[in-house]
Amino acid sequence: MSVQDVVSRVEQLQQLFGAAATPGGNGGADFASQLISASASAGSTAAMGTTGTAASGATASLLGLAPTAAAGATPSGTTGSLAGPTAAAPSGTTGSLAGVPYGDEITAAARRNGIDPALLAGLVRQESNFNAAAVSPAGARGLTQLMPATAAGLGVANPSDPVQALEGGARYLRRQLDAFGGDVTKALAAYNAGPGAVQRYGGVPPYAETQAYVQKVQAFAAAYRGTPSSLPYPTA
Known about the structure:
mainly alpha
């Protein structure tokens, strides 16, 4: 719309309201205030829905002009351009041990002792198949199959308690890793056959049980990590 069109429209509105363009008419109210009053009575404020911009929007409407959106306005229910509801963190076991029995407890015990949670889970799988009440013919008990003397030395009062058993097993595996320079294969062999046998043979002892044990624990750990086993021999 040109300036001339705007002026013509203003004159028409002046005639419509019977008011002068200068202050003083209608009890001292000027033409602009009449426009605002008229637009408010017609419900323009409710239609605009924006505090502080209703009067200017109504005037623009009466003049045949498109209203301008308020600066900085954002969609209802948001703060800024990227606002939105924050996704809730999933509950329960997460990561590589999702769905593994005692997954949260295994992960916590492993992290407290600085070892791989998947490795500890593989050890528990082989030792007890996640049966907290398991007892071996030799007397080893619980998820990590601790012998009574070993459990006592680790501060485990009740090896059948899952949390205590996992803490004791993680602590004992940590000791073997430290004793054998972080060598996982030797540490697992020591967990099964004792550190003395590993030292005596300079590696995994030539015991079928121990050799199978080391293979299976590492294969289970690889499966929990979701990575293929790198062992050079079968794990069946």
